[in-house]
Specification:
The chain is α+β, with helices and mostly antiparallel strands. It is 41% helix and 19% strand.
């Protein structure tokens, strides 16, 4: 039904990422409120994906959009300050991942590293978490995790779907792609430059030349 191959009652984000790494995908789209825990505990798995020449696209929530944060926190049944912190910390973790990848490629003299991690910030309300793998390959498996009231994504079932015509993953991707292309959906580089909440990052020694060394890709 709608390309759903199986429903997994529960699986850790790390175990899910390990399966994705093993599939050696060309592209993976990550969509959700934040990926702070993934980035905190599974950064090496993301590096492994990058070293396999995968392109990683992330679409996440703007932590400084109070309306969006308050609404989502209420739906998850958690405190809004905790959700805000996870979203904000997630952006710091993206910077750490991108910096680590940049340093690896400085050693390898690969000038195209900045086209492999693409992050955008949205103020729209995600209603699922999605790991979309090689969307143009109908035989690839993507994972959709619906958000449910008072239940976090790590407690929700996972719908494993192929990418066939009219499949669940293809329908989800159409919505993700539409949100991705909206003018108000900002590249991480532009978001940091324009956001008062993150301007201090540019003055920290670890990231003082981040925007120069990590130009946004034309994607």
């Amino acid at each position: 039904m709608m390309g759903v191959q199986k429903i997994i009652p529960k699986m850790s984000a790390q175990a899910l990422l390990e399966i994705i790494v093993e599939s050696e995908p060309e592209d993976v789209w990550f969509f959700g409120t934040h990926f702070n825990m993934n980035l905190s505990y599974s950064q090496e798995l993301f590096i492994q994906l990058l070293q396999k020449q995968s392109r990683l696209f992330f679409l996440i929530t703007n932590p400084f959009d109070k309306t969006s944060i308050d609404f989502q926190a209420k739906g998850f049944g958690i405190k809004n300050k905790n959700l805000y912190k996870n979203c904000r910390d997630g952006i710091f973790n993206f910077l750490q991942l991108m910096k680590q990848w940049q340093e690896i490629n400085d050693t390898n003299k690969n000038s195209e590293y900045h086209t492999k991690i693409i992050v955008k910030i949205s103020s729209n309300l995600p209603r699922t978490r999605a790991y979309i793998v090689d969307i143009k390959n109908p035989n690839a498996t993507s994972d959709i995790i619906p958000y449910m009231n008072n239940i976090t994504a790590r407690e929700s079932p996972i719908f494993a779907s192929n990418n066939s015509l009219e499949s669940l993953s293809l329908l989800q991707f159409k919505g993700i792609e539409e949100e991705w292309r909206k003018d108000q959906t900002r590249y991480l580089q532009d978001y940091i430059k324009e956001s008062n909440g993150f301007k201090e990052i540019l003055h920290e020694s670890a990231y003082n030349d981040f925007l120069d060394k990590y130009p946004k890709p034309n994607i």
